[in-house]
């Protein structure tokens, strides 16, 4: 994931936190929570292990033994 997308991910999470803060009448806590989740999401988006897991999940679901197409 390039740095522009990571920036959008962080800012998007921050704005979601602000929106939740407005809903629950605590904008400061919502902003800090959104920033925290944004930092965590940005970190996870650049780790190779996370990308391998996210790539593996759809293939695992598609090839599951309970697949009704067999």
Discrete helix count: 3
What integer is the average pLDDT? 78
Order of helices and strands: HHH
Approximate helicity band: over 70%
Oligomer description: single chain
Task: Provide the low-confidence segments as ranges.
Answer: none
Bin the strand percentage.
Answer: under 5%
- Please report the total strand number as a whole number: 0
Task: Kindly summarize this structure in a few lines.
This protein is mainly alpha-helical and 70 residues long.
Describe this structure in words.
This protein is mainly α. It has one domain (3-62). The chain is 80% helix and 0% strand. The chain contains three helices and no strands. The chain has helices at residues 3-23, 27-46, 48-62. Helix 1 (3-23) packs antiparallel against helix 2 (27-46). The longest helix is centred in the N-terminal third of the chain and has 21 residues, at 3-23. The chain is elongated and about 45 Å long. The mean pLDDT is 78.
List the helices and strands and how they pair.
Elements: H1 3-23, H2 27-46, H3 48-62
Helix pairs in contact: 1-2
Name the features.
single chain; 70 residues; mainly alpha; 3 helices; elongated
């Amino acid at each position: 994931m390039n740095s522009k997308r990571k920036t959008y991910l962080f800012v998007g999470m921050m704005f979601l936190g602000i929106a939740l803060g407005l809903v629950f009448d605590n904008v400061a806590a919502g902003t800090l929570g959104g920033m925290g989740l944004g930092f965590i999401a940005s970190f996870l988006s650049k780790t190779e292990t996370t990308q391998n897991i996210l790539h593996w999940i759809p293939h695992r679901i598609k090839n599951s033994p309970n697949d009704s197409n067999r």
